[in-house]
């Protein structure tokens, strides 16, 4: 990930990767550019890699005169969003992301978990199924992502998630799929690491946002550095309210929704749930050029 940007925009991008290698004592640039699927499957590597690539892509967008008026990030994406908003220095955010990934991977080693996406049922119904499954099985499972009105992700123990997927199919879900992730993110299993991660958050300065930024756990604006700090602690075991975040962005009458970094999941969600606002992914150089042209036209 990010290899084409490092090649095309070396002066802007490679400094981030070189610095990150030194900060983490990890060959992150090599892993991002040449890492095997197994290496990149380690959440302690994936998380800083995605974070760093998102920052690098954003730097190139700024070179083209594209700057956000409001920022929001899905799960890990809240960290680069806070960097853009001036709340966190990118170096501090990188260290936090690395530690976050390590702690989450540790949870999965102790209590193997799973995540699954459920489509075609209202989010409220999925929440009820999680509660029913937890009571009947004694396993931990809960909603992790409210992505869209009928697209929800659940997270928890392997048995807990399996119970919900069986129940969801029986309730009429149109699609149920296990996600390829390194840990049961945004589940109650992550409560175990909140206190330890909070100590790392306390060791880092958080500034007042210079542009509006929306928190995952509440889908509301963050007004102070301390609010941002508490949001990052809370989001470890709280669901991502992305559907509500999109509703807020639409109400704010934004010109476009730009997904920065690897993948296009959020763009696809936006086109389904907020189709009145142009949405575009910028994860490759080709996509960047297309997005710059579209955004320039929108602002004209």
From TrEMBL:
Signal peptide boundaries: none
The protein, known as: Malonyl CoA-acyl carrier protein transacylase
GO CC, any one term: cytosol
Organism: Streptomyces bingchenggensis (strain BCW-1)
GO biological process, one term: fatty acid biosynthetic process
Reactions the enzyme catalyzes: holo-[ACP] + malonyl-CoA = malonyl-[ACP] + CoA
Keyword Acyltransferase: yes
Family: Belongs to the fabD family.
Pfam families attached to this UniProt entry: Acyl_transf_1
Presence of keyword Nucleus: no
Keywords: Acyltransferase, Transferase
Annotated SMART domains: PKS_AT
SUPFAM superfamilies (alphabetical): FabD/lysophospholipase-like, Probable ACP-binding domain of malonyl-CoA ACP transacylase
Span of domain Malonyl-CoA:ACP transacylase (MAT): 1-287
InterPro entries (alphabetical): Ac_transferase_dom_sf, Acyl_transferase_dom, Acyl_Trfase/lysoPLipase, Mal-CoA-ACP_Trans/PKS_FabD, Malonyl_CoA-ACP_transAc, Malonyl_transacylase_ACP-bd
Source superkingdom: Bacteria
